[in-house]
Specification:
- It is a single chain.
- Helix content is 44%, strand content 12%.
- It contains 9 helices and 6 strands, in the order E-H-H-H-H-H-E-H-E-H-E-H-E-E-H.
- A 6-stranded parallel beta sheet has the order 3-2-1-4-5-6.
- Helix 1 packs across helix 2.
- Pfam families: Hydrolase.
- Its cofactor is Mg(2+).
- Keywords: Hydrolase, Magnesium, Metal-binding.
């Protein structure tokens, strides 16, 4: 393999959580008087850290979200994960197994909180593949995607130069962050059309295609 480290986004790439998370977010924002459809939530917030929700709502309406917004959104999202039987993205277990067999390092760099990442991995069985020190959250850095900080932080902690890393992303914000970090990035098109993931090293729609692309 030509890369020393594979950095995975989490939601939508490893864990099939984006439909659930964005349904919850759209419903909660609408309940608070900020009408938001599921498609609008995907367009504006997919791949983003929670501060982007606060920033866009205030920018568009001049109103601040409630002080307990983050806590309540988190509670609702984790509850929905339990009710909807959260699943791993198809093919992820086989992919991670192949990376282990080939001795390739990997980690997670997600806009979600550590608690959300842990809940998703625990509910899907993906926790068997990840040590705690291989998991990085936007909570760990000052700025979330599309800033490159999270990916650069992950590379530094894993001891790999950015140019030897490859990022697996499914959102425009994540792709922008990876490119800003000086890393190659492959766009996973399970939910986002390829034309929305511009500037990537390549596109793929099935996790089983990835080992060949990375070879």
């Amino acid at each position: 393999m030509r890369y020393e480290l594979v950095i995975f986004d989490n939601d939508g790439v490893l864990v099939d959580s984006e439909p659930i998370s964005n349904t919850v977010l759209a419903g909660y924002l609408t309940e608070l008087g900020h009408p938001t459809s599921y498609d609008e939530s995907l367009r504006d917030y997919m791949g983003a850290a929670i501060h982007r929700v606060h920033d866009l709502v205030e920018e568009r309406t001049g109103q601040k979200l409630p002080e307990d917004f983050d806590e309540e959104l988190h509670r609702r999202t984790l509850g929905a994960f339990q009710q909807e039987r959260l699943a791993a993205v198809e093919g992820v277990d086989e992919l991670l197994g192949s990376l282990v067999a080939d001795g390739v390092a990997y980690c997670v760099a997600s806009s979600g909180s550590h608690q959300k990442i842990a809940a998703g991995h625990r509910n899907t069985g993906l926790d068997q593949w990840f040590e705690e020190e291989w998991i990085f959250s936007s909570e760990d850095v000052g700025r979330g995607k599309p800033a490159p900080d999270l990916f650069l932080h992950a590379a530094e902690r894993m001891g790999v130069a950015p140019e030897r890393c490859v990022v697996i992303e499914d959102s425009p914000l994540g792709v922008e962050a990876a490119r800003a970090a000086g890393m190659d990035v492959y766009g996973f098109t399970s939910m986002m059309p390829a034309d929305r993931l511009s500037g990537v090293t390549g596109h793929f729609s099935d996790m089983r295609q990835l080992p060949e692309l990375l070879a």
